[in-house]
Amino acid sequence: MSGQNIQRSILCGLIGSGIQASRTPAMHEREGEEQGRRYVYRLIDIAALGLGVEALPELLTAAERMGFNGLNITYPFKQQIIPLLDELSDDARALNAVNTVVLRDGKRIGYNTDCSGWGEAFRRGLPDVARKHVVQLGAGGAGAAVAHAALSQKVGTLHIRDAEPARAVELAASLCERFGAGRALACEDLAAAMKQADGLIHCTPTGMEKLPGLPLPAELIEGRHWISEIVYFPLETELLRVARQKGCRTLDGGGMAVFQAVDAFRHFTGLEPDSERMLRHFASM
Predict the structure, then answer these.
(1) Any alpha helices (H) in 9-112, and if so which ranges?
(2) Closest Cα to residue 114, out of 90, 92, 85?
(3) Per-residue model confidence (pLDDT) at position 216
(4) Shared domain check, 14 and 82
(5) pTM of the complete model
(6) What gap in Å lies between CA 34 and CA 123, rounded to an integer?
(7) Radius of gyration, alpha carbons of the chain
């Protein structure tokens, strides 16, 4: 009987800092409702609760005791959560980052759906683009996930640039270990890399409402480039606006936001989400 109850009603949440504007709860709850489940998705925002990062173990234990089915994990906890887990998926282990935790049978299992989320969005949005040389801006948690997905999507060489050059060097080294020597390089000369590049993947916070602007000089973007953006709030960033004016093919950050939620929903519930319906719901928000 209890198994049936768990399936009929689902309780999940998002742990992070400054997450009040997140669209994740609405996406999960709406899809749960469409599937005939009582689905409650809570924001556990340490900024709103007046807590520090040291509260993570306590929050995880509390969620477990209260019968949560799973948790999404965002900034600043994607790495910090790892020592508190029992198992990791291959992607989460390779990335050393977790954004989805399933709580089941007394176990905490970590996944990374940022990686699969970007991969699915790219497969659908820019399926036929040239990808011999690609520049990626940003080597943080999301950047690492996207870089792994990009090399899995047959990108030849990924040129990675970050505001902290050591972070780009470190990410490139770990990608070469997984995908082969020379598949990723830390990018020192952005102008030269863009001259050679087929496309650009943007994985920094620049362009978000609180950080408006362009992540690179506009003159480096040419009409022959394709541009993939992961910022989705707003959906039309300055980067995408400039790129479209120049005639570039573009992919906004909405697809990654939806498909990481699609995969997390699947992990949490064991149900098959309707990704087209979730895309429509996201677009209507």
Answers:
(1) 24-34, 46-49, 56-65, 90-95
(2) 92
(3) 98
(4) yes
(5) 0.91
(6) 26
(7) 19
The residues carrying an active-site annotation are 78
Q: Tell me the β-bridge partners of 101.
A: 71, 110
* Residue ranges in the chain modelled with pLDDT below 70: 1-7
**Whether residue 195 is found in the same domain as residue 235:** yes
pLDDT of residue 210: 84
pLDDT, residue 74, reads 93
Residues 107 and 163 in one domain: no
Domain that holds residue 63: 2-111+256-284
Q: Which two tokens stand for residue 199?
A: 């496309």
CB atoms near residue 125 (< 10 Å): 17
Same domain, 238 and 170: yes
The pLDDT assigned to 7 comes to: 61
Report pLDDT for 141.
85
What was the pLDDT predicted at 1? 36
**What is the b/e burial string over 73-92, where b = at least 16 CB atoms within 10 angstroms of the residue's CB?**
bbeebbeebbebbeebbebb
- Which residue intervals of the chain are DSSP H helices? 2-8, 24-34, 46-49, 56-65, 90-95, 113-125, 141-152, 165-179, 190-196, 238-245, 254-269, 275-284
Q: How many domains is the chain built from?
A: 2
C-alpha distances (whole Å) from 60 to each of 15, 49, 77, 81, 149 are 9, 15, 11, 9, 28
- Integer Cα distance of 241 and 252 in angstroms: 10
Co-location of 21 and 44 in the same domain: yes
Query: Which pLDDT does position 4 carry in this prediction?
Result: 38
Cα-Cα-Cα-Cα dihedral sign, residues 238, 242, 245, 247: negative
Question: Are 245 and 119 found together in one domain?
Answer: yes
Do 134 and 163 share a structural domain? yes
CA distances from 238 to 55, 139, 178, 217, 223 (A): 36, 20, 34, 12, 16
